[in-house]
Every structure is written in structure tokens, then in C-alpha cells.
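Students often ask why inverse folding is considered easier than folding. One informal answer: many sequences map to the same fold, so there is more than one right answer. In these notes we will look at a single instance of the problem. The structure comes first.
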């Protein structure tokens, strides 16, 4: 296993190319001639990126431009001395960045593909949704949002808000982007929970039309960004369907707002995400593969489970959860095995075309299993991977019907 390189090693490697990149008159000894600026710049960018991702705290709280300025200032303050950077020197530089206090930023995205019908903003887990035409007073009630109205492209827009902690305002939209994508995938799953169809496309993907983000700092400073996104099917996000406990939707939003999750809760949220990705993917092959990953996220419980192959393990788990009697469990297990054969053929390039109906069926099986996990009291009570293994072992040996009317018999 390769060892992670330290900050002082990376900074030391940056020294020779820093001369060229920063326009120094003297060309670095490592470069050797004046015609290497583009090559040195590529090396420089690669090393700075390595440094940026060295500590999660950097990438999660500061933007690339902010970080580049800190790298530049390090060499400027050092005077481009060619001595190796010591660990103490590098640690002091890292500490300068991590000592910058974090602050909360509210990031808004203009959404297409959804509606709000009620007169009040809607909270779904860590997300807030506003209709700018009706909720502007609520939006402008806080110093964070004081400049938001004048920046909106559409004063009747539906706005989705998340709060992020950053050290640099310019990082806020980047930090919020995966949260917006997570919202889209979660809504996509919910739109197809207990139904059959395509994903609900809420605007966070990189396709038409444009969405606009606004990162609002406590002092009213605001950064505006633009991204492209998919059109949607206009679900009413304040409909009680999206928080219906009978469907487990309230539980999903609760987990999204929870930082500390159990082993099984992590599996549930990963499965929600992969099902959402599968539903939003137009490629039948990709949809099939992502549905398979969703099932694996939920049921891959270790090689020691009855010494079974992964396919045998997964097909049996799906059958145990979904089957209402012995015959239905046998039928479902066989069906999942056949779909996994197709998945393996796609992965290994044996099968070049995938039938959309087969892909949708695997998505349907994954969604149905997840539905049972988030609505059944006995399954909701399982917290650890060991408990999950024991649960399936007990079902296997008992040979009993797993579910009657949504509850464990």
C-alpha cells in the first residue's frame, strides 16, 4: 500500500516549478530551459491538487482559488528559497489555514421541475424549500439573505437551501453541490417508491436548463454561480407524500439530517442514493449496474455468510425480504440470479446491449427491498452489520414467511 505523502514533501517538490509559474526571472534548475512553462504549469497544478486533497479539511472548507492564493503566498513569503521545506515549516503553513474559523453559509439553488403549493416554506431534513414569490419576506428576514432578491434571475423561482460550514465563501457552492445532487436522487427514489417510472429530475444535474446558486454569508456578502440542470416532472414538494411515515419518507429525511448513523442506516442512505442515480440514468446498462450496486449496498454482508458467492448471497437476501411464501422466494431468488448474470455480462463486456425492462425490474426489486427496510419495524430496529447477518441467518434456518402486511411475522 502506498504511503500518503506529507505536506512538506509536496511543498518541496513545488519549489523548482514555482519559479516558472510565478514569473520569476530566474528559470528553475529543474526546468533547464525557457520553453517549459506549460509543462511546469501542469506539474505545478498536479502538485497543488495533491496538496489540496491531502487534508479533508481543505477540500471541504476552502475553495481552489483561496487555496492557490495560500500556496502562492507561502512561496512569496519564503522568497523562493530552494531549500527543502521542513515538516515544522509545512505544519505551520497548514495550521495557518486550519486556524481560519469556519462560518455558516446558506446556499440556495433555483429549482426547476418542482412546485410548492402551501403558503409556508417547507423543511425536508437538512433542506429548506421556498417559493420566492410567496416567501420573500421569510427569505429576507435574515442578514444572510439580505442581497438575495436583487440577484434572483426569477423572482417566482422555487429555491432549495442548504447550510454549509466553510472557511471561504467561494467554497460554499462546491461544498453544497453534492448535497443538491443528493436531494435530487432522494426525491427520485421517493417519486418511484411504490410506483414504476422514471426518476423525478430536480435541477442539480449538468444539463439544460440553467440553475443558479447563491452563497450567502452572515454579513450579507453573496456569491452567485450557475450550473445546468435537468427538467423535471414538477412534483409538489409540500405534498404529505414526501414525508409519509407509511412509506418511510420521514425516516429518510431524518437520516439525511443525522450526522451519526448506524451501519445499517448508512446502508439505507447509500441504497437510496444508488436507486436515485439508477432512475436518473438514461442508459439501460448504467441503470442496471447502479441498481445492482444499490442491492449490494443493502445486502452485501460479508463473505462468511454461509460461504456463499456474492450473487447467491444477494439473491437469497432479496428473496427473503420480498418473498411472502416459499414459492415466491424461490421465484424471486431465481429472477435476481438471472439479472445478476446480465449485470456480470455487461461489466465484462460480453453483453453490449441491455433491455430497459430488465434494468427497470432490477431497480424495482432494489426499491421494494429498501421500502421494506424503511417501513418494517423489525428491520428498522437492526443497527449493526452483525445484527443484519444474524437476522438473515435466522430467516434462512426458520424458513418462515418474512413479512405479513409490511410487518415481520
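Output (designed amino acids):
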Amino acid at each position: 500500500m502506498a504511503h500518503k505523502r506529507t505536506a512538506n514533501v509536496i511543498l518541496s517538490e513545488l519549489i523548482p516549478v514555482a519559479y516558472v509559474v510565478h514569473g520569476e526571472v530566474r528559470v528553475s534548475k529543474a526546468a533547464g530551459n525557457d520553453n517549459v512553462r506549460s509543462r511546469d504549469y501542469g506539474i505545478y497544478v498536479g502538485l497543488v491538487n495533491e496538496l489540496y486533497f491531502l487534508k479533508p479539511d481543505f477540500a471541504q472548507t476552502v475553495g481552489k482559488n483561496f487555496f492557490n492564493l495560500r500556496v502562492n503566498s507561502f512561496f512569496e513569503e519564503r522568497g523562493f528559497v530552494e531549500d527543502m521545506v521542513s515538516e515544522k515549516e509545512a505544519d505551520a503553513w497548514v495550521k495557518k489555514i486550519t486556524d481560519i474559523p469556519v462560518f455558516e453559509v446558506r446556499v440556495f439553488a433555483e429549482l426547476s421541475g418542482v412546485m410548492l403549493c402551501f403558503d409556508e416554506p417547507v423543511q425536508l431534513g437538512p433542506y429548506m424549500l421556498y417559493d420566492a414569490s410567496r416567501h420573500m419576506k421569510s427569505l429576507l428576514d435574515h442578514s444572510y439573505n439580505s442581497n438575495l432578491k436583487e440577484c434572483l434571475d426569477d423572482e417566482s423561482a422555487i429555491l432549495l437551501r442548504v447550510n454549509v460550514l466553510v472557511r471561504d465563501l467561494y467554497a460554499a457552492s462546491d461544498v453544497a453541490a453534492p448535497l443538491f445532487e443528493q436531494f435530487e436522487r432522494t426525491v427520485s427514489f421517493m417519486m418511484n417508491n411504490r410506483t414504476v417510472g422514471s426518476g423525478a429530475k430536480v435541477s442539480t444535474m449538468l444539463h439544460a436548463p440553467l440553475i443558479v446558486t447563491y452563497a450567502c454569508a452572515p454579513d450579507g456578502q453573496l456569491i452567485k454561480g450557475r450550473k445546468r440542470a435537468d427538467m423535471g416532472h414538477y412534483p409538489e414538494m409540500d405534498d404529505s407524500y414526501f414525508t409519509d411515515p407509511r412509506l418511510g419518507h420521514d425516516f429518510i429525511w431524518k437520516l439525511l439530517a443525522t450526522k451519526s448513523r448506524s451501519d445499517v442506516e448508512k446502508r439505507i442512505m447509500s441504497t437510496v442514493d444508488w436507486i436515485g442515480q439508477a432512475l436518473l440514468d438514461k442508459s439501460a446498462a448504467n441503470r442496471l449496474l447502479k441498481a445492482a450496486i444499490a442491492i449490494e449496498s443493502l445486502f452485501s454482508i460479508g463473505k462468511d455468510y454461509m460461504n456463499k458467492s456474492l450473487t447467491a448471497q444477494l439473491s437469497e437476501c432479496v428473496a427473503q425480504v420480498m418473498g411472502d411464501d416459499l414459492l415466491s422466494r424461490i421465484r424471486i431468488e431465481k429472477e435476481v440470479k438471472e439479472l445478476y448474470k446480465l449485470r456480470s455480462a455487461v461489466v465484462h463486456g460480453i453483453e453490449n446491449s441491455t433491455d430497459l425492462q430488465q434494468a427497470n425490474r432490477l431497480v424495482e426489486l432494489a426499491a421494494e427491498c429498501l421500502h421494506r427496510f424503511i417501513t418494517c419495524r423489525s428491520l428498522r430496529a437492526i443497527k449493526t452489520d452483525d445484527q443484519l447477518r444474524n437476522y438473515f441467518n435466522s430467516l434462512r434456518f426458520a424458513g418462515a414467511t418474512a413479512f405479513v402486511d409490511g410487518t415481520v411475522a
